[in-house]
Amino acid sequence: MSDPRSGAHPSPGRRTCAGAHPRHGLDEVIHAPVRFSIVATLAAADKAEFAFVRDTVEVSDSVLSRQVTTLEKAGYVAVTKGYVGKRPRTWLALTEDGRAAFAAHCRALRAIAGGDDSRDDS
Question: Where does the record place the region Disordered (predicted)?
Fold first, then answer.
């Protein structure tokens, strides 16, 4: 939803309308399956090496790179490059905004699915 008068577009991942349904709490940046998997992997650690995330999420280098770029532009992932010995390495980490967005997104998913995680469905 953009304002045709200003040319402004809402920020990626931010809600543009208020509503009572929990789907309004979903983050469009995180909601894509590969990005959700990346963010979930990074939520479990302070930082993770690019290759570890790639292998965990089961995607190619190029797919991971494109999705990380989207998450980085949204302010959800920080990318750090360096070396281990003479080998170049890339580390990925969730930012504070990324952790908050992931937590809110998970709350919205739980609310859509029926609420309490501790409920026994058996």
Answer: 1-22
